[in-house]
Amino acid sequence: MRPILFYDRISPPVRSVLLLIRELNLNVEKRYVNLLKRENHREDFIKLNPLHTVPVLQDEQCTLTDSQAILMYLCDRYGSTSLFPKDPSLRYRIINRLFFNGCLFFRRDSDMMSEFFRYGVVDVSDHRLKIEQSYSHLESFLSDQKFMASDQMTIADLSIVSTLSTVDAYIPVEETTWPRTFDWFNRMKALPYYIEENQAGIDELQEAIRKRCGN
Fold first, then answer.
1. End-to-end distance of the chain based on CA atoms, in angstroms?
2. Model confidence over 57-77: pLDDT tens digits?
3. Which of 56, 151, 181, 203 has a 20 to 30 Å separation from 50 between CA atoms?
4. What pLDDT, on the 0 to 100 scale, is given for residue 215?
5. pLDDT over 90 for what percent of the chain?
């Protein structure tokens, strides 16, 4: 059986997995879960994932509910040693970047976006400092290499770009302040599947925010 991905493109973690699926050219069944209609709170979905979040991946007897775990699993299960190398020193540098994104950067993104939907107002003033601090962390990651964990693209880049591209729409990555991050971001946007798998979801999210905020 094909792996099954439960998804909604407005979610940055979902988009990181969609980017990887395209990079690996995997044959995956996709099942849409509309977050804006709270389909992730349906009883059948909560049985699948009590955290009621997407993405969720089902593959044979394995069910994973965290995007970072899904990224690592798909590489190991379907044999991508370039995106998630076996060498321990590099592999754990990649995992370190994944934890940075999942535990810190995405949390800051999520806090900001949740506030937009909760109050119906786009106000980034309370979030700017923390987001810009995250940009500075990314800039330091790129101080001696072309990508976030090495000189080649890895799953760390796919994870981070899905978050950065979401907040960049409201707090732009300025070339003068974060030149290495700005350059890396443009190189990631040049991926042949970037528009379809990432930008399309950002566009959907921004449209939903505009409707919620009355703009």
1. 44
2. 999 889 999 999 999 999 999
3. 203
4. 64
5. 96
* Tens digits of residue pLDDT in 85-97: 999 999 999 999 9
Mean pLDDT for the stretch of residues 158-165: 98
Query: What is the dihedral sign for C-alpha 153, 155, 158, 164?
Result: negative
Overall average pLDDT of the 102-116 stretch: 97
Structure tokens at 129: 């400092």
Q: Which distant-in-sequence residues (6+ apart) come within 8 Å of 188 by Cβ?
A: 153, 157, 161, 194
Find the length of the chain.
Answer: 215
The owner of tokens 């990631």 is 188
For residues 128 and 159, give the distance between their C-alpha atoms in angstroms, rounded to a whole number: 21
- Packing angle between helix 128-141 and helix 155-168, nearest 10 degrees? 150
Tell me if 35 sits within 8 A of 10, measured CB to CB: yes
Please name every residue paired with 58 in a beta bridge, in sequence order, or none if there are none. Answer: 4, 63
DSSP 80-107: -TTTS-S-HHHHHHHHHHHHHIIIIIHH
Element (H, E) at 128: helix 128-141
Annotate 127-146 with b (16+ C-beta within 10 A) or e (fewer). beebbbebbeebbebbeeee
Rg (CA), the chain: 17
- Amino acid of residue 141: F
